[in-house]
Every structure is written in C-alpha cells, then in structure tokens.
Amino acid sequence: MASNQLMIVISVLLLPLALHSIAAVENATNNTVEKNVDVVVEGMVYCQSCEHFGTWSLAGGEPISAAKVAVICKDHRDRVSFYKAFETDAHGYFYAQMW
C-alpha cells in the first residue's frame, strides 16, 4: 500500500516536468526563423596614375564613373553558375547585391 502511494506521489511530482518539456518542444518547432542571407560585393573602380604603372599603388588614381563591373561565380567544375554586371556611380563606387 505504501509503495502504491509513493508511486502516486512521484508521478504527481514528475507530471509538471513532463508537460513543461512537451510545451517547450512544441514552441521550438513553431518558432522557426527563416534566415535571409544577402551576398554583396562593393568597391571602387580607379584609374591608376601612370606614375605608378605596374604597382599596386593607387596614389594619384582617379575614380572612374560609369565603369562596368561584372561579378562571376563558378562551381567546382569551373562552370559559370552566376553572372551579373553592374555600373559604378559618379564617384566610382559600386554596390552589387547578388541574391
């Protein structure tokens, strides 16, 4: 008789824990958040000064307006999987949003 009462007491004590766990799992599955990942390439296009020809220096370089910039992505077989062209603004700046 005492063991039956002990089992009932333990069951009553563990029941709220079980219900809380079920509610937590249900809330976790209902609150899925969709992630939206944007891939962006941005930069400046300059005309290098003739004084620094053949170097990485941009000293004296001028930004190029209306320059065409292309972004190409290739897969593991070196095939083009994405291509998109962009144009720089009056200050040589471009902002290329891929996806």
TrEMBL record:
UniProt keywords (A-Z) are:
Signal
Q: Does the keyword Lipid metabolism apply?
A: no
Q: Name one GO cellular component term.
A: cell periphery
Q: Which residues form the signal peptide?
A: 1-24
**Biological process (GO), any one:** root hair elongation
Q: Which domain of life is it from?
A: Eukaryota
Please give the name of this protein.
Pollen Ole e 1 allergen and extensin family protein
